[in-house]
Amino acid sequence: MKYYIVIPAHNEEAFLEETLRSLSAQTLPPKKVIIVNDNSSDGTEKIIDAFCNKHNTYLKLNTSSSKEHLPGSKVINAFRKGLALLDDEYDFIVKLDADLILPKNYFESIASVFNENKNIGLAGGFVYELDSNNEWTLNHPMNKKHVRGAFKAYTKECFKSIDGLRNAMGWDTVDELLAQYHGFEIKTLDELRVKHLRPTGKAYNAKAKLMQGEAMYAMDYGFLLTSIASLKMALKQKNTKTFYHNMKGFFKAKASNLQKMVSPEEGKFIRKLRWKGIKGKIIA
Questions:
Q1: Where in the sequence is the domain holding 224, given as residue range(s)?
Q2: Cα–Cα distance, 117 to 267 (Å, whole number)
Q3: Within a 13 Å sphere around the CA of 193, how many CA atoms are in the beta-carbon half?
Q4: pLDDT digit string (tens) for 170-184?
């Protein structure tokens, strides 16, 4: 299958070279790779230039946005700018982070999944991070059907149906909810173990604390679902402040009448889907 990749990169000097090496070693190579150098002030651009000079499928795009490293809008704005340089002659499109080491067969396996089941619109592996014992261990949310935002792969049909990616915190949750709204399935592959070189959230600043709750409001979860999701998140992280920050963000978004990321009909579907998942876990 033919696939394109867009890599947003902001000050990734420490990790980008390893990511691009693992990408260049893929058994099924990409047809086009756009690396978006987003306002970097370190040696990121030199690394990009070196790979672009070696591989004619690689292309650099320099852009300037906020210097702040926040989840959501910054990375998706960079992704969209890279996407604008691509045509529609692909079978699947990938949003890839710049701090990963991929298995050599990563995209060959993703292509096989899409080939074997046309109902699958979104696929990915699992994140592994170094723990305190210097061992690579699984780091994943409670929902094993969720594909991490670090390596999202969408079929063209799915990507077009969900109208691309939302430039807000929660983009890598609402995309999956909308994919299901449009009748697509999501597939995760246990055998695809991706090494994440920067622990999740380490680069985010203090402003990011309230953004999860704001995202839940924007996805039209409602108060009760937001409360349950925030409690589960706090228990997983073993941090009661997570619940407080999420709910504070939710009420802040509600007070400011933050624009929703979904239509009323999509919001109704999302709530129904979430409640179905909760009830399924209780019964199990």
A1: 206-283
A2: 27
A3: 8
A4: 999 999 999 999 999
